[in-house]
Amino acid sequence: MRKHTINPYNYYSIQPNKQNESAKVSIIYHGWGGSALGYRDLAEELAGEGFNVVVPEIIYHDTRQKLADHFESKTVQDYFWETIMTTIDEFHDFVNTLGIDKENVILIGSSMGGCIANGIFAREPMVEGLVNMNGSGSFVLTERLFRERDGRGDIPDQLKKRLMDYDPVDSEPGLSPVLLMHGDSDAIMPIEGQMDYDRYLKENRRHVDFRVYEGVNHQITSDMIGDLIRWLNGLSK
Fold first, then answer.
1. What gap in Å lies between CA 145 and CA 220, rounded to an integer?
2. N- to C-terminal Cα distance for the chain?
3. Helix (H) or strand (E) holding 229
4. How many domains does the chain have?
5. Which of 93, 165, 153, 82 is nearest to 122 (CA)?
6. Could you tell me the CATH number of the domain that includes residue 132?
7. pLDDT in tens, 43-77
8. Alpha-carbon distances, residue 102 vs 33, 64, 66, 93, 166 (angstroms)
9. pTM exceeds 0.90
10. Residues in a beta bridge with 109
11. Which is nearest to 91 in space by CA: 66, 134, 127?
C-alpha cells in the first residue's frame, strides 16, 4: 500500500488488479487501538478482486494525535465514542478531498471501525454498501452494555444525547445492501448491537445479510474474509 497525505488526512491506498478492475472504492476503517497498516493484507486481497482500496488513518491513532495507551480504562471511556463521532463527521470532507464519488463507496469496518462505517452509512444514503464486522449499529444499546459489563452507572444525559444524534437505529435507513458479520462468542463488542441493528433494518428496509460465526471471539477469521469477498463480488455484478 502507498501512503498519502492531504491535510489534515493521512491514508493508504492500493490499486486494483487491472484484469478485474472495478470503479468501486472500498474504504476500510480499523478497530480501536489498531492501525491503518494493520489492514494491509485485507486491502491487498480486495485489490486482487479488482477493488480500489483506501484505508484512512483515524484520529487518535497512527500519526493523528495518537494516544499513549488506548486500552487504559479512562482513555477508552473518554475517547472511544469521540473517535467514532469525529470520524463520521470527517467522511464528507474526506471523500471530497480524495475526489471519490460516494455512489462508488463501499464502507467496511471492523470493531470500532464497524461502528464508524455504520454511522457514516446511516448519514450517507448514496453509498454503495456497508460491511460491519464485529462492530455495532446500535450505539446507545452498546454503551449501555459496556457499562453493565464494567459495573458503571447509567449513561450520563449529555453522552446519551450525543450518541442518539449519531445512532444508526435512530436514522432513516437507505436501500443499499448491508452485510453484518459477528462472532457469537465476542467478549469485546457485544453481538447484541449487531442484532438490534439487524432487527431495525429488517423492520424498515431490504438488502440485509446478517452472518453469525459460531465459536468466534473478537476476530476476523478466514471464513469471514471469504464471505466478505463473495459479497463484494456480488455487488459488482
1. 22
2. 26
3. helix 222-235
4. 1
5. 165
6. 3.40.50.1820
7. 999 999 888 999 999 999 999 999 999 999 999 99
8. 27, 24, 28, 11, 19
9. yes
10. 29, 132
11. 127
